[in-house]
Design a protein that fits this description.
- The chain is mostly helical.
- The protein contains 18 helices and no strands.
- The protein starts with 13 loop residues before the first helix and ends in a 5-residue tail after the last helix.
- About 4% of the residues have low confidence.
Length: 413
């Protein structure tokens, strides 16, 4: 069509595509060797050759990414399942699917579509090397979670994958450790009448969960109220000594937590708040307030102060202006700060170690005690639940951040 000047990237040499896939296969081979220095070189060479042969064969298909991905999935699964195990076959099937689509992506030259046509080969290389490095860092950080979640469904009381789990035997997986959170080994739900009420009143894990939500809720309320008021004051241009006050208010984020917890312990001991719920709530509120201040201050940076002046000119007082004008616009930032404060309280263990006794044990404190006193995979189940809660809360924070940006006109609706 006339006037259509879409950039069509040139098709690279086949050696480029095969070489990239051979390097990718070599990395997979090194990971398969699992640190065995005697196997690293053979695994690297064999895996690189196999990936290179597969890539060369896929290039004969042309730009058919779906078919290439399907072939990679099937071929790698059959080979790995036949030579090793079913679980390894599933893992290699995913890698084969990625390798197949990657081959078509490289061979068609589409990797240049995200870059300007005048980009040099070195610029293209750095563009993707930077993303690969970031991907490796992400995998390095997230891999413990990927390992932890399936282990929490282990039928056996081990912190390792059993042969049954690796072969995907349904009998090797169980919810026993999640049930142990509720029962805590003290209640038999099939034999005890009224076991539900006994369970919720006696189980250590349930008491820890209840304490975490109770302390986190009130600490969040206090830190959100104080942090929002402080942020509004710091956002005012008439506020004297804003920078020193800001540095003082966010100091709990900078000072090592052990020092903060020790100072709180000595102070609360002198006023009778140590080993009490109120003391822990105040300690967690002090730790969560800086997050609220930073989040709300960032939200107020795009706030139109002429709205408050217009409200005052129409006779509204400061309190009415805050609730009717400011609060609706900064509400996403306030909720985001509250969620950060809740996560801080929910995951905090250092202050609880020094300020709490057996009655105020939270989930992290109970996990710490379980690691020291009685190793049990129940800890893995609790950790999985905490990961899920954290992901849900952080997803909510991200949605609220985007909504706040749309309200301030920073991003398109």
């Amino acid at each position: 069509m006339a006037g259509d000047y879409r950039y069509i990237p040139p098709q690279p040499h086949i050696g480029f595509t095969v070489g990239i896939l051979a390097g990718f296969g070599g990395i997979i081979g090194l990971m398969t060797a699992q640190g065995d220095t005697g196997l690293m070189l053979p695994y690297l060479a064999v895996s690189a050759v196999l990936f290179a042969i597969f890539s060369f064969a896929i290039t004969r298909l042309g730009d058919r990414a779906v078919i290439a991905g399907g072939l990679g999935l099937v071929v790698y699964f059959i080979v790995a399942n036949f030579l090793v195990t079913f679980a390894y076959g599933v893992l290699l099937a995913i890698i084969g699917y990625i390798a197949g689509r990657m081959t078509c992506w490289l061979n068609s030259g589409r990797y240049r579509l995200n870059l300007p046509p005048y980009a040099t080969a070195r610029q293209v290389l750095w563009f993707y090397c930077f993303r690969v490095i970031c991907g490796f860092i992400f995998v390095f950080l997230i891999m413990p979670i990927f390992v932890l979640i399936p282990l929490s469904f282990n039928q056996e009381p081990y912190f390792s994958f059993t042969p049954g789990m690796l072969s995907f035997d349904p009998l090797a997986y169980s919810l026993r450790w999640y049930m142990d959170i509720l029962q805590n080994g003290m209640v038999d739900p099939t034999a005890v009448i009224g076991w539900w009420s006994d369970m919720w009143s006696n189980a250590q894990w349930i008491r820890s969960i209840r304490n975490s939500f109770f302390i986190g809720f009130w600490a969040t309320i206090i830190s959100t109220a104080l942090g929002t008021l402080a942020a509004i004051g710091l956002a005012s241009s008439d506020m004297p000594f804003r920078r020193p006050i800001m540095a003082l208010l966010i100091s709990p984020m900078i000072v090592p937590l052990v020092i903060t917890a020790s100072g709180l312990f000595f102070f609360f001991s002198s006023v009778g708040l140590a080993k009490t719920y109120m003391g822990i709530i105040l300690a967690h509120a002090a730790l969560g307030t800086p997050f609220v201040i930073i989040t709300v201050t960032a939200t107020l940076s795009g706030f139109d102060q002429s709205l408050t002046r217009a409200s005052a000119s129409m006779g509204a007082g400061p309190i009415r202006t805050f609730f009717k004008v400011q609060m609706p616009l900064i509400l996403p930032g306030v909720i985001s700060g509250a969620l950060f404060a809740f996560i801080t309280s929910f995951d905090e263990v250092v202050a609880v170690l020094q300020l709490a006794d057996v009655r105020q044990r939270t989930i992290p404190r109970q996990m710490f005690s379980g690691i020291r006193e009685q190793i049990s995979p129940t800890i893995l189940a609790v950790a999985t639940i905490l990961v899920i809660i954290s992901v849900l809360l952080l997803t909510t924070v991200e949605l609220l951040r985007r909504r706040s940006e749309r309200l301030r006109g920073v991003s398109p609706a």
